[in-house]
Structures are given as C-alpha cells and as structure tokens.
Amino acid sequence: MLDVLNVPNVLTLLRLLAIPVFLILLVDFRYREALGVFVAAGVTDALDGAIARLTHTKTTLGAYLDPAADKLLLMSAFVALAFLQQVPGWLVVIVLSRDVMLVVGYFLLFTMTQHAMEVRPSVAGKLSTFLQLSAVAVVLVSRVYPRTVPPVAQTALFLATGVVTASAGLQYMVRGLLWLQRQDDTHEAGH
C-alpha cells in the first residue's frame, strides 16, 4: 500500500480532485481562478513524472492514473469551454472522439486477444496533448486578460490542435491494428 501512496501518485490524485474545482470555477465565469487551478494541475503533472523518474517510484497505478487524469482534465475542460462557447464545437468533437476511440480500441484489443497492448505515447500524441493544454490555457488567458491573444492566433492554435489530435488518433489506430495483426500471426504460428 505504501508503494501506491507515493508522492507522484498523490500529486496525480490531487490533479484528479482539482477537476471538479476547475469546472465549478469555469461555469461560474471565474476565469482567473480557473486559470490558476489549471496551471497548478499542469505543474503537478510535470512534477509527478519528474519525481517518479528521479526517485525510481514509478508504479503500475501511476502509469494508468497519470494519463487518465490528463485526459479527464482536458476532456472536461473542452466540454465546459464548448458549453461556454469559448472553443469551437468541431475541436471538442475531435478531442473527445480521439480519446473515446483510444479507450474503446484498447478495450476491444484486450477483449479480442486477452493480451494487454503496451501503451506508449507517440510524438504526435504528446504534441496533441501539449496543443490541447495550450488551447485551454490560451482561452483562459484571453478571458482573464482580454486582447492579449489575437483572434487569428487563437484560431490557428485551434486548427493546429485539431489536425495534430486527429493525426495522433489515426496513428494510434494504425498502431493498434498492426499490433492485432502481430497477435494473429503469433497465434497462427503457434498452431
């Protein structure tokens, strides 16, 4: 139990607990406080990974909990910002579709093969997460400090986020199908 409650995992749990606070602040139009919570969540995300690597305290729980916390924060932020008409609906659909597709795809692969596919983020996946975080942060900053982000820059960021997120989703889909093909080839070779 002590291994599970290490500092990186506690930081990740704090990030999960910050999500409802962040959403309450957003729907109350308290953008400054929401931005503070969002930045604090980002800091804990950077810290938990760095601490886990430096102290060699990586856990299986942390390996699943950390990306889940990131996805829940981003998905809830995009949905809330869409309801507040701060991000375009098409971008929210791309972000949510990719994440739902990944979870469902992983579940289907496991169900079909009874083997867990190793989940490794790709460069495109990491870039899409960075762009999604940037898009949310830019929207919040533009609400707290009007006229600091030109609309054309925000639109360009939204477009880049959508393209990279969709590309990463397709890359993960191809990776899953290739993995499934290798599982089938291994199974057939065994018979």
Condensed summary:
This protein has 191 residues and is mainly alpha-helical. It is 82% helix and 0% strand. The protein has 6 helices and no strands.
**Helix-strand category:** mainly alpha
* Total beta-strand segments: 0
Largest sheet report: none
In percent terms, what proportion of residues is strand? under 5%
As for the number of domains, it is: 2
- Provide the low-confidence segments as ranges: none
User: Share of helix among residues?
Assistant: over 70%
Q: Please, what is the average pLDDT?
A: 86
Shape: globular
Output the helix-strand order.
HHHHHH
Q: Rg to the nearest angstrom? A: 18 Å
Q: Report the span from N to C terminus.
A: 42 Å
User: What is the tally of helical segments?
Assistant: 6
Characterize the structure shown:
With about 190 residues, this protein is mostly helical. The chain has 2 domains: about 1-85, no CATH class; about 85-190, no CATH class. The chain has 6 helices and no strands. The protein has helices at about 5-25, 30-55, 60-85, 90-115, 125-145, 150-190.
